[in-house]
Amino acid sequence: MNLLLLSNSTQYGRGYLEHALDTVTAFLPARARLAFVPYALADHDGYTAKVRAALTGAGIEVHGVHEGGAPLDRLAEADAVFVGGGNSFRLLSALYRTGLREALVKAVGDGLPYMGASAGTNMAAPSLRTTNDMPIVQPPSFEALGLVPFQINPHYLDPDPHSTHKGETREERLTEFLEENDVPVLGLREGSWLRVTGAHASVEGAHAARLFRRGAEPRELLAGSDVSELLTVTPEYDTAAR
């Protein structure tokens, strides 16, 4: 596996992918033909144009998988794939509908570099269950790509001790998830990302990540932390804590 999993594609005060552009361009093969999967947003053409504008200057040739033929053909022609952010339910539903879910699992398993941001990062986990998104559509299954054997929570937000909001914090939601499922969850704060190369995984970017496990206190993982052990876990779903 060769994965770059970004928490977010747009950082406050900066342009699209600007906060991670050096990392993105170093990750992608030189002068790569990049297949972009825009299905997390409704405007596929506009979304693809935004990615193209961000990466063309770096010599990356961006092609939306919806452009000029079958999505599976566009993927087969690519040197790398980027699955963009938006609504995770809409995205996963489209991956099933187009056949890209199975095709991505095979292609990335065979070595195709995979870059995800937000919803695209959610897709790399085994299940959709730790997304922050509203289920605006119903995919055939919550089963995602399973490129890594643990869950990820992009855009992770720390509890605000001064907030008067009475809804659940992100930490409370992830704790509820762990009450029903025994699988680690890596909370990626905005500006951070996960890099996976073969059997090695590390937290990178501007901020620390937060790791949640059943029966343990959340743990801070500073940028540069080796989290390769997470690649060896066996996830267990629908296993209520006793």
UniProtKB/TrEMBL annotation:
What InterPro entries does this protein map onto?
Answer: Class_I_gatase-like, Peptidase_S51
Q: Is the keyword Cytoplasm assigned to this protein? A: yes
Q: Which GO terms describe its cellular component?
A: cytoplasm
List the GO biological process terms: proteolysis
Reactions that this protein is recorded to catalyse: Dipeptidase E catalyzes the hydrolysis of dipeptides Asp-|-Xaa. It does not act on peptides with N-terminal Glu, Asn or Gln, nor does it cleave isoaspartyl peptides
What's the top EC group for this one?
hydrolase
A single Pfam family, by name?
Answer: Peptidase_S51
Entry annotated with the keyword Transport = no
A GO molecular-function annotation: dipeptidase activity
Subcellular localization, as worded in the UniProt entry = Cytoplasm
What protein family does this chain belong to? Belongs to the peptidase S51 family.
The protein's name in its UniProt record: dipeptidase E
Protein source organism: Streptomyces nodosus
Please name the gene that encodes this protein.
pepE
